[in-house]
Design brief:
The complex is a heterodimer of chains A (about 300) and B (about 250).
Chain A lengths: L7 H5 L7 H18 L1 H18 L1 H4 L32 H37 L1 H16 L2 H12 L3 H28 L2 H7 L5 H37 L11 H8 L8 H28 L1 H4 L2
Helix pairs in contact in A: 2-12, 3-5, 3-12, 5-6, 5-8, 5-10, 6-8, 7-8, 8-10, 10-11, 10-12, 11-12
Chain B lengths: L4 E10 L6 E11 L4 E6 L5 H9 L5 E7 L2 E2 L6 H6 E4 L13 H11 L5 H11 L16 H13 L5 E5 L7 H18 L2 E6 L2 H7 L2 E6 L2 E7 H6 L5 H9 L6
Parallel strand pairs in B: 3-8, 3-9, 6-7, 7-8
Antiparallel strand pairs in B: 1-2, 1-4, 4-5, 9-10
The chains are: A mainly alpha (about 300), B alpha/beta (about 250).
Chain lengths: ~300, ~250
């Protein structure tokens, strides 16, 4: 297919793709070009890539064991030899703890992302497409969950099931899905009456096929955008639970828990709480920037005509 | 021999309990096999609603409708979808924005239980005057006329006998309109199709159909032979008015 004179770029940008794979790659490449033109989004993507790399190679990157205590070397300031970001109240290296903490952060984000948007998408599209009583019942349930203050419900949940990362994740996911459900329902309502859905119904397609193959692909792009924008909130909620002592338990180097520990010394040894705080800030910002960029690429309203 | 389409005393409503709107009032018409029948009238006169009631997209109806002598019930079965297909008005709205031509046609063919999908997709594209080069394009890479051709290919995929055309050209440029109308004429001759065509354009109906029903405010006011229409032999004032409005273009 690619002749010698034709570069890979030309092949990807061809107006007449020759196979299914070619068409999909071409569409993907065009999206990538749009995203690449957005510098802020690329910065966000770079930070997230860095975070992923850090989490993946934590044992090689971290200069010290994050759990080893050295009480003789406690509360060292920034730039101490061997401890670039200083040490905490038990003499543990803050940089190493932050590097290992990136794993926990990613773990929480990944778990929430696997639960909340998918549950929301299911509930929202079914409610929107079925209409009638199904819609009313599902949406009232959504309203009930939406009415709970997030942190309070998470507190109650953790109190009932015990503290720990998994329960914190469940608690966050439980309070995070209703906005996705509402969004998916609103989109489904506009999509379901469109001609292309009527057309596929006239081919004899059943509701399951229409929802999964025709409505989901149109909802998913705005959902992805929304998830990346919410990522910051999820990280902050997890850090908040950690801070309250209801998320990750010591000695786990979760960023929120680290801030909580550093709080006691914040006036005299400010860096102990500030460094993990900066990490949370940077990662949240990165997800927000990427989310903004993805909105430009994925929004079906812009790319459809 | 039974008629391809027979509609008797059809009433169609939209809306719910207190807020009902009757879009079609007591409409009756029959279309013989292989014929081409037009439905004309101004916007909101209920033309398209008759098509939607036939296909089951407007669920609140009363009266009797039959296809090839089989009465239609509340639910349409697979056999119905294999016999009757529809082409929508706006080709910009009737194709899924995220699906390539190949996906649209392949899925349709799969739903109708065909096996040799690759060959059929290529043949459908040739039938509607597009080459295999268009197979993997997305709707946003196609012009309005090309999109409508894809929509027609999708309707033909099931090898139906009856095609319902809902103003198939009104969203297109004038030059493209003629192309699509000629394509529809050719396809009808080739596949022996029966057309029920909705249009607000008398010239289009005069070109495509042998008979036409004129609708006003949800009622069929007159069923007229196109030859009579050309000659100006109308029975109802409204038909005369419509004819007058599009004078010079019908004959």
């Amino acid at each position: 297919m690619t002749t010698e004179t034709q570069t890979l770029r030309d092949w990807l940008l061809s107006e007449t793709p020759t196979s299914r794979r070619h068409a999909r790659l071409a569409a993907f490449y065009k999206g990538w070009l749009t995203l690449r033109a957005n510098h802020m989004a690329m910065i966000g993507l770079a930070i997230i890539a860095l975070l992923l790399g850090t989490a993946l190679f934590a044992p090689w990157l971290a200069p010290h064991d994050p759990f080893v205590q050295d009480l003789a070397f406690r509360l060292q300031p920034l730039g101490t030899e061997g401890h670039v970001l200083g040490t905490d109240s038990l003499g543990r290296d803050i940089l190493s703890r932050m590097i290992y903490g990136s794993r926990i952060t990613l773990y929480i984000v990944a778990l929430v992302v696997m639960i909340a948007p998918i549950a929301g998408l299911l509930v929202g599209t079914i409610a929107g497409y079925a209409g009638g009583w199904t819609d009313i019942v599902l949406m009232r349930i959504t309203d009930i969950f939406l009415a709970f203050p997030r942190l309070i419900l998470a507190l109650a949940f953790v109190a009932a099931l015990g503290a720990g990362i998994e329960n914190a994740v469940l608690a966050i996911a439980l309070t995070a899905w209703p906005p996705y459900a509402r969004m998916a329902r609103a989109e489904t309502l506009t999509i379901r009456s469109s001609d292309y859905i009527s057309a596929i119904r006239l081919q004899g397609a059943g509701p399951m096929r229409i929802i999964t193959k025709h409505i989901w692909p149109l909802c998913i792009s705005s959902l992805i955008v929304r998830v990346t924008l919410d990522m910051a909130g999820i990280i902050l909620a997890a850090a908040g639970l950690g801070f309250l002592g209801l998320g990750a338990q010591p000695p786990s180097p979760e960023w929120g828990a680290m801030i909580s520990e550093g709080r006691r010394f914040i006036l005299d040894y400010w860096w102990i709480a500030t460094m993990p705080g900066l990490a949370i800030f940077t990662v949240s910002l990165a997800f927000n920037l990427l989310g903004d960029g993805l909105r430009d690429v994925l929004d079906p309203k812009d790319s459809s005509s | 021999m039974s008629d391809a389409i027979s509609i008797q005393n059809l009433n169609v409503w939209f809306g719910e309990h207190n807020d009902l709107f009757q879009a079609v009032k007591n409409a009756s018409l029959t279309v013989a096999k292989g014929a081409s029948f037009g439905l004309v009238g101004e916007s909101g006169s209920g033309k398209s609603t008759i098509l939607r009631a036939l296909t089951g997209l407007a669920p609140q109806w009363e009266g009797s409708m039959s296809i090839n002598g089989t009465d239609l019930t509340e639910k349409r079965n697979k056999q119905f979808y294999k016999t009757v297909q529809m082409v929508f008005q706006d080709p910009y709205a009737s194709l899924h924005p995220r699906q390539s031509v190949d996906q649209v046609l392949s899925e349709t063919l799969t739903l109708h239980g065909f096996r040799d999908i690759d060959d059929r997709v290529n043949k459908l594209l040739l039938d509607v005057g597009l080459g295999p080069a268009f197979r993997f394009r997305y709707p946003h890479q196609l012009s309005g006329g090309q999109r409508q051709r894809i929509a027609i290919a999708r309707a033909l995929a099931a090898e139906p006998k009856i095609l319902l055309l809902d103003e198939p050209t009104s969203a297109l440029d004038v030059s493209v309109q003629a192309e699509i109308l000629n394509l529809l004429c050719d396809l009808r001759a080739e596949h022996g199709l029966t057309y029920l065509m909705v249009s607000h354009d008398l010239a289009v109906v005069a070109h495509m159909c042998e008979r036409a029903a004129v609708m006003q405010n949800g009622e069929i006011v007159e069923i007229i032979e196109v030859a009579d229409m050309r000659a100006g032999r109308t029975q109802h004032d409204y038909t005369a008015q419509l004819l007058h409005a599009s004078a010079n273009r019908v004959t």
